[in-house]
Amino acid sequence: MKSQWDTIAAIATAPGEAGIAIVRISGPQSLVIADKVFRGKGPRPSERSPNTFLLGFIHSPFETDNEEDLDEVILLIYRAPHSYTREDVVEIQGHGGRTCARRILRAVMNAGARAAEPGEFTKRAFLNGRIDLLQAEAVADLIQARSQRAAAAALEQLDGRLSALFTATYDNLLEIAADLEATLDFPEEKLPVSTISAVMTRLEGVTRDLRDLLATWEEGNLLREGALVVISGRPNVGKSTLLNCLLGTDRAIVTDIAGTTRDTIEEQIVLDGVVLRLVDTAGLREPSCTIEREGVQRAQAYVEKADINLHVIDCSENLNVEDKGLLKTLELGKTVIVLNKSDLGQLVQPDNLGGFSAVVCSLIRGEGIPGLKEAILDKLGIEREVPSHAVISERHRQFIQNALNNLDEAVDLLSTGKEDVVVVSAGLVRNALESLGTITGRVYDDEMLESIFSRFCVGK
């Protein structure tokens, strides 16, 4: 059976050719294992001081001294509690590449280590009190960040900024719960009204703080997942040309033949630190065949779930019945109209689009792209050149909402002025405390930890 007290090992660097590959070992037998597989000058690793770097060779623990070494390495020694996991840790830096790293890992496992599970090193850092659960999640977010803004937000969270906010709110709510429960010792006829009033005021303050945190979810979701930006419109209006302009490369085939794009084409760009998932879709019209019908249906499905819909219109021609019909189906809040082909004349004006945001472009000339990018950022609510801050994730949002539901109900009950609601209100506040404690890891179970750390890479 696997245990958190086992000594674990994993390759901590990405596969493929590189300058170095790192094999990480953590647990009570780390230095004993290092003694078995490392050959160098001077005392053995277990006899060395912490923070020591050793140059030598790795060999299999089952080979004799006369047999071939596996790799020349640098071995790093970290002694508990001054390590990432707060356990004894050994890191072996060998030559990069799949073969060298695997040979070293095999030798380490033959010497007594077991293979680490995904995220198990960070999980041990959490269980050993080095970081809380918010900071542990930030490690995964930092590794998986696809933009500078996402990395900056994850680093803020890893630094403990978000943890400090949640801890202060938790401690404040804990004091409120204690004060509320203390009133249960009073006889009903002697219960001070001012005490309940003060508790309600403090609860309302906590709910304001939680709603401020809840308001950061949309930004956090945008930074972690990116924004889905769908390019839609009738055939031959320049949708694929728009995709190529935004990407800066000829990704999609562009021809004068209507209906060239039959399926969706998806690519990614980073715009001012925000990942945009660009999807070029088939032209929206009455399909002429089964294949085109499937493409149109996919296009309509993407438009419905898009964060931003870039709807392209040929502004060199007057709006026809199809254009007007499509405009009626679009959501005002998430649509930007791209008035393309302005080089051929402009018969459609932005003021005639029923309040939709619009940008005039000549995509074949590359004109209007900067203004379009500004319009996308405006729709997303992203300000230019503003550094990111720690933001909550979907998991945090759910528990904050649970806490708010309990606190709102507690305030409503207390506002009735009835003495018999204090017991129920105190229970609701305790429920809210448990939800907040689950965010930082003060309250957790094995299933929750498995869910969180399973998304980590092996070796971290």
Could you please describe the fold and organization of this structure?
This protein is α/β, with parallel strands linked by helices and 460 residues long. The chain folds into three domains: 8-116, Gyrase A, domain 2; 135-216 and 392-453, Four Helix Bundle (Hemerythrin (Met), subunit A); 226-380, Rossmann fold. 43% of the residues lie in helices and 17% in strands. It has 15 helices and 13 strands. The strands form two sheets. It has a seven-stranded mixed sheet with strand order 3-4-5-6-2-1-7. Strands 9-10-8-11-12-13 form a six-stranded mixed sheet, sandwiched between helices. β9 and β10 (274-280) form a beta hairpin. The longest helix is centred in the middle third of the chain and has 22 residues, at 161-182. Mean pLDDT is 85; it is low at 257-262.
How would you summarize the topology of this molecule?
Layout: E1 8-11, E2 20-26, H1 30-37, E3 38-40, E4 52-58, E5 71-78, E6 89-95, H2 98-110, E7 114-115, H3 120-127, H4 133-144, H5 148-158, H6 161-182, H7 193-214, H8 217-225, E8 227-233, H9 239-247, E9 265-271, E10 274-280, H10 290-305, E11 308-314, H11 321-329, E12 335-340, E13 357-360, H12 369-380, H13 394-414, H14 422-440, H15 446-453
Parallel strand pairs: 1-7, 8-10, 8-11, 11-12, 12-13
Antiparallel strand pairs: 1-2, 2-6, 3-4, 4-5, 5-6, 9-10
